């Protein structure tokens, strides 16, 4: 998920990216000074000099930490628990985003590399802090099964109040075409669901359009409006995070002349898959659902503990810092389960209302009541959404003859093939959604469109 959070993510679609603070500086410091300040701030964190780092915080950052009941020490401990020991700063880059400047400090850790995104206000104080997967040095490669000569791409916008840039990939030839809306996993994703060197949503769009199926993908609201959303946190739920925008995508397709308005499907990945039944429950005109690595339980944040336990155990041992981080996560999860959250408190990056809303939702029960055609896919090497979830869908939807299940032993959470245990480092290597996944989705959609 994302929304004003502050623990960290390991290049994953299900893990959480946590951010604190925002900045709308009208006067920008000199670039060299910005880079120096951001590097010094990260180095203080790496040395454990948190009192000195605190002195560099802007008031908005101080208030953000208070609201989330967090300290810089706790944040950095969470980073180290998942990424391993800090090694070095590799490079810095200054960019302008949504009207303000920020510095990306690319850092090498024992287990992976991260971009520490530091936003500075007009006085050079730290007003925003983000931990993001570092982009791979290897470039994305389009899949061989995609043939750009068989489709065109059109830029468009979805939504009204929260307009989101989108890309509609349409097969060449005469319509009407069946169409799919792609719904992201957790994290402030772009329309391609870019993770490291991989773009699984682009693979899906190009691969399926090659086979005669139109695909709509869009920037996730929490990426496009990361700063603006912070002011709405109290009333923020998965409706604002995901569901409303997916429905806006469906509505756009219904108004597109090349698309068959009765053959619009929703494909959700990870969090998007878990929420897909809830999306369809609000629009009974949706033709069917495709669930890729969907959590079978609504309180998907429980997966954070499972993922962290998996990651810290990869080296065969759990050190004192890692054990402490696991206990802290258990404590946060207990507060969420019991809804022991104060009115203005944020736990694991979200309000009491957010978690209460999710806990009232049963994805498998909702899916069963829909009685829609569904295709449920799961990778055997996925450590983020596991076989336990896949079995939950199988058992809960047993007896429904319009639901099909597919399991791929060698695929990871991104449905990319590999061997051995899956790790965050795997996402930094370029790969593509497996061709068999594209083929089976296309075959299923066409069979349901006849």
Helix-and-strand structural type: alpha/beta
What is the fold named in CATH at topology level of the largest domain? Answer: Rossmann fold
Determine the N-to-C terminus distance.
Answer: 37 Å
> What integer value in Å does the Rg equal?
21 Å
User: In what range is the share of β-strand residues?
Assistant: 15-25%
Helical proportion, percent range: 25-40%
Shape: globular
Largest sheet: 8 strands, mixed
For the record, the CATH architecture of the largest domain stands as: 3-Layer(aba) Sandwich
Q: Major sheet: order of its strands?
A: 6-7-9-8-10-11-12-13
CATH class of the largest domain: Alpha Beta
The domain tally reads 2
Compute the average pLDDT: 87
Total number of β-strand segments?
13
Protein traits:
450 residues, alpha/beta, Nuclear Transport Factor 2, Chain: A, Rossmann fold, 2 domains, eight-stranded mixed sheet, 15 helices, 13 strands, 35% helix, globular
Structural notes for this entry:
The protein has 450 residues and is α/β, with parallel strands linked by helices. The chain folds into two domains: 1-134 and 302-345, Nuclear Transport Factor 2, Chain: A (Roll); 148-301 and 348-449, Rossmann fold (3-Layer(aba) Sandwich). It contains 15 helices and 13 strands. The strands form two sheets. Strands 6-7-9-8-10-11-12-13 form an eight-stranded mixed β-sheet, sandwiched between helices. α4 (72-83) crosses α11, α8 (238-254) packs across α9 (271-281) and α9 packs across α13. It is globular. The chain starts with 18 loop residues before the first strand and ends with a helix. 51% of the residues are buried.
């Amino acid at each position: 998920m994302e929304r004003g959070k502050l623990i960290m993510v390991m290049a994953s679609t299900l893990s959480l990216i946590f951010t604190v603070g925002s900045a709308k500086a009208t006067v920008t410091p000199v670039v060299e000074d910005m880079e120096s300040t951001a590097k010094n701030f990260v180095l203080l964190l790496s040395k454990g000099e948190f009192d000195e780092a605190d002195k560099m915080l802007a008031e908005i950052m101080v208030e953000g930490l208070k609201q989330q009941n967090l300290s810089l020490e706790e944040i950095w401990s969470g980073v180290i628990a998942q990424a391993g020991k800090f090694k070095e700063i590799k490079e810095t880059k200054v960019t302008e985003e949504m009207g303000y400047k920020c510095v990306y400090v690319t850092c090498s850790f024992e287990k992976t590399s991260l971009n520490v995104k530091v936003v500075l206000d007009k006085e050079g104080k730290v007003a925003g802090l983000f931990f993001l997967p570092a982009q791979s040095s290897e470039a994305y490669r389009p899949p061989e099964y995609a043939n750009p000569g068989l489709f065109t791409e059109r830029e468009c916008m979805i939504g009204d109040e929260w307009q989101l840039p989108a890309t509609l990939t349409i097969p060449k030839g005469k319509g009407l075409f069946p169409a799919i809306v792609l719904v992201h996993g957790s994290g402030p994703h772009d329309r391609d669901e870019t993770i490291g060197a991989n773009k699984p949503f682009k693979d899906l769009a190009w691969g399926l359009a090659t086979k005669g199926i139109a695909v709509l993908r869009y920037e996730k609201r929490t990426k496009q409006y990361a700063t603006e959303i912070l002011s709405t946190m109290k009333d923020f739920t998965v409706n604002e995070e995901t569901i409303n925008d997916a429905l806006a995508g469906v509505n756009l397709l219904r108004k597109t002349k090349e698309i068959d308005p009765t053959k619009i499907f929703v494909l959700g990945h990870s969090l998007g898959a878990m929420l897909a039944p809830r999306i369809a429950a609000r629009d009974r005109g949706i033709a069917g659902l495709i669930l890729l690595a969907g959590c079978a339980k609504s309180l998907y944040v429980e997966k954070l503990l499972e993922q962290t336990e998996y990651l810290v155990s990869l080296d065969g041992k759990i050190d004192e810092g890692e054990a402490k981080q696991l206990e802290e996560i258990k404590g946060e999860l207990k507060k969420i389960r019991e809804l022991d959250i104060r009115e203005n408190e944020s736990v694991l990056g979200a309000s009491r209302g957010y978690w209460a809303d999710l806990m009232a939702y049963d994805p498998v029960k909702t899916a069963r009541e829909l009685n829609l055609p569904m295709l449920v896919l799961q990778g055997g090497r996925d450590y983020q959404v596991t076989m336990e979830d896949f079995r939950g869908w199988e058992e809960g939807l047993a007896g429904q003859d319009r639901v099909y299940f597919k399991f791929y032993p060698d695929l990871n959470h991104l449905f990319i093939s590999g061997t051995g245990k899956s790790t965050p480092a795997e996402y930094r290597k370029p790969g593509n959604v497996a061709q068999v996944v594209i083929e089976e989705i296309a075959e299923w959609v066409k069979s349901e469109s006849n």
